[in-house]
Specification:
Elements: H1 2-12, H2 14-29, H3 40-50, H4 56-68, H5 76-106, H6 109-114, H7 119-147, H8 151-167, H9 171-190
Length: about 190
């Protein structure tokens, strides 16, 4: 991580990197709808491929950290900001991701309340909800391609899917159960 931070500072300057972080995550925050998982493919494309702030493994770790900590999944951005530019990067990334959501919620809220029975507004909300579901499915694909790469990880993923499907476990319990499955399955399938 230190090497990465030095490279970021040397190529663009700390202030420039912080401005890039703010602009990127503000743009990402403008597209959050329904769930933080909906922006995972967007974040992955931006921070791994376009801006090259993280590699695939670091990005997957950032999402995993957000999934196992309390709070919204979009808090992934604070961890990404920290990896890129330390504490200042984490703060700027968090501000960037939440600012548009706050603005888009507070300012038009009275108008939405007055027009909640409007058929066009209801149709828009239904369409946006369907799009968010598709984006979440995209996040599953992006994360699955990077996390499931051999028989042990596929086995752990399958066990997690069965637990979710059969018992409708909530996320924290599912994560703990999958972790326990990993402790049991990994040594057996790795031969040790």
């Amino acid at each position: 991580m230190e090497t990465f931070l030095l490279r970021a500072d040397a190529t663009a300057g700390t202030e420039s990197v912080l401005v890039q972080i703010l602009l990127f995550f503000t743009k990402a925050g403008a597209f959050v709808f329904g769930s933080g998982l909906a922006i995972v493919p967007f974040l992955q494309q931006g921070v791994v491929h376009d801006l090259r702030w993280l590699n695939d493994h670091q990005f997957l770790d950032a999402v995993a950290v957000a999934l196992i900590t309390p709070g919204p999944v979009v808090i992934t951005v604070a961890f990404i900001g920290y990896l890129v530019a330390g504490t200042a990067g984490a703060i700027v990334a968090a501000i960037g991701i939440f600012l548009p959501v706050y603005i888009f919620t507070i300012i038009p809220a009275p108008w939405f309340r007055r027009h909640r029975e409007n058929p066009q507004l209801q149709a828009f909300a239904a369409g946006a909800t369907a799009a968010a579901s598709g984006a979440i499915a995209g996040a599953v694909v992006v994360l699955g391609q990077r996390a499931i790469f051999d028989i042990p990880t596929a086995s752990i993923g399958l066990i997690g899917l069965v637990l979710l499907w059969r018992f409708r476990l909530q996320e924290p319990i599912l994560v703990a159960a999958a972790g326990i499955a990993g402790l049991v399955v990994w040594p057996i399938l790795r031969g040790g």
